[in-house]
Amino acid sequence: MATAERVLMNEYRSLQKEKWTNIELVNESIFEWNVALIVLNPDSLYYGGYFKAKMTFPRDYPYSPPTFKFLRPLFHPNIYPDGRLCISILHQPGEDEMSGESAAERWNPSQRVESVLISVLSLLDDAEVSSPANVDAGVMLRKDPEAYKEMVKRDLEASKADIPEGYVMPTAADAYKTVREPSFNMDDWGDSDEEELDFGGSDSDFEDEDMEVDDEASGSEGDDEETLDKA
């Protein structure tokens, strides 16, 4: 299995356990997802919404970012009328002098789907109006916030039409009920496709520490023996 497929499959399985998103593969392709963002924050203007989007992943993922597009466009300063987003995390890696974005703000291979979705949820309530993708929405948010809230309510109610039949919408309380049981199988350890975990220290560091501890222990034993001889 190629790196992109393996990484995406692991991310897909992990996100299936989350209450705040509902994901389906498009035509059983791991490179195309239908994603629903479910807003469980009761303090959000979008609380209770079910916002569907499509994510498409490049073959060299995670070295290049996915694309994200709301299927039902929202009236929002950072969402284009066709549903595409203007958000740094989805921009190609590296600094962009034209936009002023630093490399840290943009996509990098350590990012994952979950970080993208969380960024999108944060963007909904924390719009960037200095360079809006939807100028009308940006102007309304600044000059007439109450009218903007009414537009949000409209989009919120419209989103509920996309809730699948029979799907039970989670609540804010459900967001804290997900308990992940550890899954570990010794039989899979040797054949794991996962990259070896690196906690930042080399093996030699630990070996040096062990040697120092042994030396200290040996020295203390010698001191004890001298004390006994003198006694």
Layout: helices, strands, pairs:
Elements: H1 3-15, E1 21-26, E2 29-38, E3 50-56, E4 67-70, H2 113-125, H3 135-143, H4 145-159, H5 186-189, H6 203-230
Antiparallel strand pairs: 1-2, 2-3, 3-4
Helix pairs in contact: 3-4
Overall description:
- InterPro entries: Ub_conjugating_enzyme, UBC, UBQ-conjugating_AS, UBQ-conjugating_enzyme/RWD.
- Keywords: ATP-binding, Nucleotide-binding, Transferase, Ubl conjugation pathway.
- Belongs to the ubiquitin-conjugating enzyme family.
- Residues 188-231 have a biased composition (Acidic residues).
- It is globular, with a radius of gyration of 26 Å.
- It has helices at residues 3-15, 113-125, 135-143, 145-159, 186-189, 203-230; strands at 21-26, 29-38, 50-56, 67-70.
- It has a 4-stranded antiparallel sheet.
- 35% of the residues lie in helices and 12% in strands.
- β1 (21-26) and β2 form a beta hairpin.
- α3 (135-143) crosses α4.
- It folds into 2 domains: 3-176, Roll (Ubiquitin Conjugating Enzyme), CATH 3.10.110.10; 202-231.
- It has 6 helices and 4 strands; from the N terminus they run αββββααααα.
Question: How far is it from the N-terminal to the C-terminal residue, by CA?
Answer: 71 Å
The tally of helices reads: 6
CATH topology of the largest domain: Ubiquitin Conjugating Enzyme
Write out the CATH superfamily name of the largest domain.
Answer: Ubiquitin Conjugating Enzyme
Write a brief structural summary.
A four-stranded antiparallel sheet has the order 1-2-3-4. Helix content is 35%, strand content 12%.
Which structural traits does this protein have?
231 residues; disordered C terminus; alpha+beta; four-stranded antiparallel beta sheet; Ubiquitin Conjugating Enzyme; globular
